[in-house]
Design a protein that fits this description.
7-stranded mixed beta sheet, alpha/beta, 246 residues, Rossmann fold, 2 domains
Length: 246
């Protein structure tokens, strides 16, 4: 079983990331709406949607959203936790991003570093090629990815904290252009522990520009954070790219 198949489907994943910033998710949705307004890009695929927080924010802005994720547990949570009062309720399906859906979309989004999980570079390239194939003519693609230079220069190699009385030791390292995060969960007073990993490729702007070109996508905008600030390869926390299908 690949690390992402195991880790994203465990309740410990939810505990570790329960602090995720809802304000940032709303800011990301607003940035998307400013650049790709819902009256023009109505039908949206939230690819690797997780538990649906970005899908909800996009739906609140009148997009018609389909969220897709490999984790059945995540999709179950997304379906059951839809907020009340949305202009359009999103739909959710279990789906592997390495495969194409038969539906075509006006806009496809891949947010919060939900890309670069595969050690085989061709697998990651094929995800973007699939995105292009699933877009309608003149459709748009948005990817919100880590900034590899910023990650490398600010890497915290080890830290410890507690989550609901569970001790978590996190170690990080970079090898073969991949950042690896190992999480060891321990229950105090017992010998019980569980270990999980996350691995993400450190693809830079040039890699995305070239793969977009190969996939029939034209880069149109790049931002360095959710507030729409300009992208700086050394200082920006995020690398947010917008592209159009040629």
């Amino acid at each position: 079983m690949a690390w992402f198949e195991e880790w994203f489907d465990t309740p410990l994943y939810e505990k570790l990331y329960a602090h995720r910033d809802e304000e940032e998710a709303a800011m990301m949705a607003a940035l998307i709406a400013h650049t790709c307004p819902p009256h023009k890009y109505r039908e949206v695929l939230d690819l690797a949607c997780g538990r649906g927080r970005h899908s909800y924010n996009l739906a609140a802005l009148s997009y018609q959203v389909l969220g897709a994720d490999l984790s059945p547990n995540a999709i179950d949570k997304a379906k059951t936790n839809i907020p009340r009062g949305l202009k359009r309720n999103p739909s959710f399906v279990v789906h592997d991003m390495r495969k194409k859906l038969k539906i075509r979309f006006d806009l496809i989004v891949n947010l919060f570093t939900s890309f670069g999980y595969f050690e085989n570079h061709d697998d990651n390239k094929n995800v973007i090629k699939n995105v292009s194939a699933m877009l309608k003519e003149n459709g748009a693609f948005v990817i919100d990815y880590l900034n590899p230079d910023f990650v490398t220069s600010t890497l915290v190699k080890k830290q410890k904290h507690e989550v609901d009385d569970i001790e978590v030791e996190i170690t990080r390292s970079i090898s073969k252009s991949m950042v690896k995060k190992t999480m060891r969960f321990s229950w105090p007073g017992t010998s019980n522990n569980q270990v999980f990993e996350e691995k993400v490729q450190l693809y830079d702007f040039g890699w995305f520009r070239d793969v977009f070109e190969e996939s029939g996508l034209e880069l149109t905008e790049k931002f360095g954070n959710y507030d729409g600030s300009p992208y700086d390869a050394k200082e920006s926390k995020r690398m947010i790219l917008f592209a159009l299908k040629k």
